[in-house]
Amino acid sequence: MKLCPANPHAVRANSCLRALSVVLSGLFFFAGACGGDLPAADDSPRTETRSSALVQTCTATNVQGNPYQGQLCGGAFIDNCTPGLIYTCTGGPRGTTGNCTLAQSCSVGCLTGPGDTPVTANIGTATPVANDACFTGPAPLTFSTNATTGGSYVTMTATLNNPHSPYAVVNFQGTTADVPPLCDVPLLLQPNATSVSWIEPTNVVASTKNVPLWTLISFNDSSGALRNLVSVTNPLTLNPGGTLPKPPLQSFSVTDANGSPISTIPGGSNVFTHGTLAASTPAPVGGTRGTVTSNPANAFVSDGSFTIDAGCTSNFTAGTLTASSAFTSNVSATVSATSGGGATLSQNVVVTPPPLAVQSVTLTPSTVTGGASLTGTVGLNRVVLASDANSTVSVRIAEGNISGAQLATFPGCTGTPACTGPLTVAQGSKSASFTISTKPVASQDFVTVAASAPWSNSSASANITINPGGSTGPALSSLVMTPSSGTCGFSTVGTVTLTDAAPAGGAVVALSSSSTSNAQVPASVTVAAGQTQASFNGTTGPTCNMSSVLITATYAGVSKQNALFFNASGGSGGGAATLTLTASGRSGESVFSTPAGLSVHVGTTGSASFAVGTRISLQATNGRSAVWSGACSSGGSTTKTCTFTLGANASVTANVR
Asked: If you count Cβ atoms within 10 Å of the first and of the last residue's Cβ in the chain, which end, N or C, has fewer?
């Protein structure tokens, strides 16, 4: 026996199942074959879409493909028989087709017998049986009118006078694009009720259409036996000349992620919009669009409009409004919604300045000769306000990535070989600068400068390249791949940068890929004489069986690496955020993420996109511990892992020990 969820909105995360009936502690739940939505499983023949024409010969089986025998009620089993009529069926080998022939037309419908074999019974190769008959009670499915102008509402009523406990499940069948499925399923008929009604929208038609509709009502009778009442098809005639209604919004709300109404929102945060329609005027065919606007218009940077699906009175998927992070004082905003019919509804929301956060670290220049000085600048997401309790940033300069020695420091920076010191951003400013001094080196080395704060939900970092004195030629400074992620087959552009202009004849930079089947780059790229940069094209595919591929550039004994990340094909498009990871410390190690997607060698920085709300765990290779800072912080201690939930674009720095 079967019952299909009548509306995809109520089973948003699940596909329709085929032929399932479960009796558990007196409660029953059904999922039936859903017409042409999915291909049939090997042992589960598909139930075909039925028309009003009588089917003379049909196939009826259980989920294992064993054909039924006996008197069978069409539409109550895995069958392609006409619903509501009685068929004589014969058993046979598994996979037999055409085992049923029309035996009796019923005026109202048919009712399955209490001793029928459930379609899900594990009976091996045995033959399931049915002993069904025509039903003589009130019509299981009636309409307020059997003919109407397209675009009008029609009240549907399902009726069951037979005792049913704890309730009966009503499945509305034969729906089309012109008469949509039920919105809220399951539709239950309570034990103390004999009927249940709902309002069904219809589509505007260019010519007269007949839509044959029927219902399957599943219930436990007074003895506890599972029964199915199937109505004969009841055609609803739609005539041309109508228009789709625009029902007015009955209510509109702006809420947090838990559905609680809000009155204030910090800049950069999300709120969610919801609307309802009156029960008497659900959304028409095609749905009702709730168009959301705000005043002032720049209070939000995303469109919070939403759609109420056909036959529904509220939106299952909330609209999303992202508050602007540009304000430095509170802004009162009016958020309004309209369906295009009736009055516009509004809610008042105050957008507050975003929480203060570390946004960037900039080094000028980023490449120096050992012993030289440079300027570091920490940037915030907005200016510091008088209302901010703290604007002091903790700046950490790591030890040399290769040597492990202290190679750089700034006034007030304490500790060795890595040092940490405070930097205060003045009120009214959004950045502060400091002077970094470096030490001479015998060979090229790299140092990471990171900024974080306990009041910031993000951190930032940048790398200094320190060259030995007396160098007569340029060194390789960086390799950048843009974009660095995408689905298999995406193209990317790589850019190599030298510390100084290329000599006469140019500088040939060797290129390589850690997996040429996943990503391809040319063997080399030449930086023209007198220039400091050159670009090359890279491609991915034809196979993408890895989460990432490492691209390496080498010149004059110095190598730089950057990773290409492969996203899952056909992503949901739902909210995503970028995690940027900078690894410093012990040479030869890497830091990687779980779930996979981000793997960064010490001395480099990489990024990857994850779904908002993903729980991400970071750890170093070979069981190494690290000091974590930024969006995932160990508070200055060394730990083997750092785990956090990604809620927005974020940065993490890992100093591997």
From this structure: C
Pairing of strands 20-24, 78-79: unpaired
Instruction: Inform me whether the pLDDT recorded for 296 exceeds 70.
Output: yes
Taking the C-alpha atoms of residue 366 and residue 466, their distance in angstroms, rounded to an integer, is: 9
Q: What angle do CA 188, 191, 192 make, to 5 degrees?
A: 115
Walk across the sheet containing 650-656 and list its strands: 605-611, 576-585, 650-656, 626-630, 638-639
- Cα separation, 628 vs 646, in Å, equals 15
618 sits in which H/E element: strand 615-620
**Phi, then psi, of 297 in degrees rounded to 5:** -65, -25
Question: Alpha-carbon distance 82 to 85, whole Å?
Answer: 6
Q: Which of 485, 477, 620 is nearest to 544 (CA)?
A: 485
pLDDT of 140: 98
Q: Which residues of 82-117 are buried (b: 16+ CB within 10 A; e: fewer)?
A: bbbbbbebebbeeeeeebbebeeebebbbbbbeebb
Contact by Cβ (8 Å): 511, 551: yes
480 beta partners: 495
Residue 636 is which amino acid?
G
Residue 72 φ then ψ, to 5°:
-120, 135
CA angle 632, 638, 641 (to 5 degrees): 50
Tokens 């960064």 label which residue?
600
Top-confidence residue, 48 or 654: 654
In which band, very low, low, confident or very high, does the pLDDT at 205 lie, cut at 50, 70 and 90? very high
| Interatomic CA distance for residues 558 and 445, integer angstroms | 10
Q: Is 580 exposed, middle or buried, given 0-12, 13-18 or 19+ CB atoms closer than 10 A? A: buried
Q: Which residue has the tokens 């989460």?
A: 547
What 3-state class would DSSP assign to 154? strand
What stretch of H or E contains 29?
strand 27-31
State what percent of residues in the chain have pLDDT above 90: 66
Worst-scoring range by mean pLDDT, 49-58, 105-114, 204-213, 302-311? 49-58
Cβ contact 133:113 at 8 Å:
yes
* C-alpha–C-alpha distance, residues 213 and 236, integer Å: 7
Q: What is the pLDDT of residues 50-83, one digit of tens each?
A: 444 799 999 999 998 999 999 999 999 999 999 9
The SS3 of residue 541 is coil
Instruction: Give me 523's structure tokens.
Output: 């063997």
**SS3 labels along 483-501:** CCEECCCCEEEEEEEECCC
In this structure, what are the phi and psi dihedrals at residue 586, rounded to the nearest 5 degrees?
Answer: -65, 125
CA–chain centroid gap for 192, Å, is 41
pLDDT of residue 115: 93
What average pLDDT does this structure show over 185-191? 94
Which residue from 231, 233, 185 is spatially nearest to 50, judged by alpha carbons?
A: 233
Q: Residues 183, 159: contact at Cβ < 8 Å?
A: no
pLDDT at residue number 533: 93
Smallest CA-to-CA distance from 351 within 374, 334, 369, 376 is with 334
Residues of the chain by 3-state class (helix, strand, coil), percent to 5:
0, 45, 50
pLDDT of 45 above 60 = no
In the predicted structure, residue 230 carries a pLDDT above the cut 60: yes
Cα-Cα-Cα-Cα dihedral sign, residues 73, 77, 79, 80: positive
Percentage of residues in the chain having pLDDT higher than 70: 89
How far is the C-alpha of 566 from the C-alpha of 568, rounded, in Å?
Answer: 7
Q: pTM of the full predicted structure?
A: 0.60
**Pairing state between β 615-620 and 590-594:** antiparallel
